[in-house]
From TrEMBL:
It catalyses: L-glutamine + H2O = L-glutamate + NH4(+); 5-[(5-phospho-1-deoxy-D-ribulos-1-ylimino)methylamino]-1-(5-phospho-beta-D-ribosyl)imidazole-4-carboxamide + L-glutamine = D-erythro-1-(imidazol-4-yl)glycerol 3-phosphate + 5-amino-1-(5-phospho-beta-D-ribosyl)imidazole-4-carboxamide + L-glutamate + H(+). Residues 41-200 form the Glutamine amidotransferase domain. Its EC number is 4.3.2.10, 3.5.1.2. Its main location: cytoplasm. The active site is at 81 (nucleophile), 185, 187. The keyword S-adenosyl-L-methionine does not apply. GO terms for molecular function: glutaminase activity; imidazoleglycerol-phosphate synthase activity; lyase activity. This is Imidazole glycerol phosphate synthase subunit HisH. Pfam families: GATase. Heterodimer of HisH and HisF. It comes from Devosia limi DSM 17137. One of its GO terms (biological process) is L-histidine biosynthetic process. One of its GO terms (cellular component) is cytoplasm.
Length: 207
């Protein structure tokens, strides 16, 4: 039986993620620094806001080690929006270089100011670059809902599952082993987003 944990954050899309899982037939639960992660089969890291502020919160609660141990156990781990960015090595948001969880070989930088309005808010297309269990059954070129000013740059093309163009390209779905991330909000992306969430919750972490 799937036991999906949603990491409790001070800011974020917690309730909408919970609702999306619940309407898809799962019984998610919120977890925090006092929770035992051992009984979980899946972990979701949501996030909204400033990278460093969110990471500082995790550090203050002693959560990075718990998240890392969970991911290293081979169980499926998902980051959403800033939660995806936290999976990388670092971010330069606000002109400060802040360390991430380092679960994928990527860095986070501000989207180029090339005439596009920032933050990037609204529906944009995801171009799937390779097959992955979390995207199984989804058609190419579907739109998802984004809210962000920073994007991920991968150190290797091997971890890029999907990209999106907003002035220039950025990684919108990342994956390494049992760890995946969505820069967009699947819980706000209607049927395609719910499909992704269902795929993740049923995934065994194998690729």
């Amino acid at each position: 039986m799937e036991r999906v944990g949603i990491l409790r954050m001070p800011l974020g899309n917690l309730q909408s993620v919970w609702n999306a899982l619940h309407v898809s037939g799962f019984d998610p639960e919120y977890v925090d620094e006092q929770s035992d992660f051992d009984h979980l089969t899946h972990l979701i890291i949501p996030g909204v806001g400033h990278f460093k502020a969110v990471m500082d919160h995790l550090v203050s609660k002693g959560l990075p080690d718990k998240i890392t141990r969970f991911a290293q156990s081979g169980r499926p781990t998902l980051g959403i929006c800033v939660g995806m960015q936290l999976l990388g090595k670092s971010s330069n948001e606000g002109g400060v270089n802040s360390a991430g969880l380092g679960l994928v070989d990527a860095v986070v930088t501000r989207l180029p100011d090339d005439g596009q309005v920032l933050p990037h808010v609204g529906w944009s297309t995801v171009d799937l670059k390779r097959d992955h269990p979390v995207t199984q059954g989804l058609k190419q070129g579907r739109d998802y809902y984004f809210v962000h000013s920073y994007g991920m740059k991968a150190g290797s093309e091997d971890i890029v599952i999907g990209t999106t163009t907003y002035g220039s390209d950025f990684v919108s779905i990342v994956g390494k082993g049992n760890v995946v991330g969505f820069q967009f909000h699947p819980e706000k992306s209607q049927s395609n987003g719910l499909h992704l969430i269902t795929n993740f919750a049923l995934w065994d972490g194998q690729c």
